[in-house]
Amino acid sequence: MSDSDPLSPLLPALLPLNTPPQGPSWNHSEMSELIGDTPRRPAAVLLGWREGVQPRLVLTVRTANLQAHAGQVAFPGGRTDPEDSDAIATALRESEEEIGLDRKLVTPLGFLDSFETISGYRITPVVARIDRSARLYPAPAEVAEVFEVPMNFFMDPANLRRYTMEFRGHRREMVEFMHGGHRIWGATAAMLFNLLQRMGRS
Question: Which residue segment(s) compose the domain that 81 sits in?
Answer without folding.
Answer: 11-27+38-155
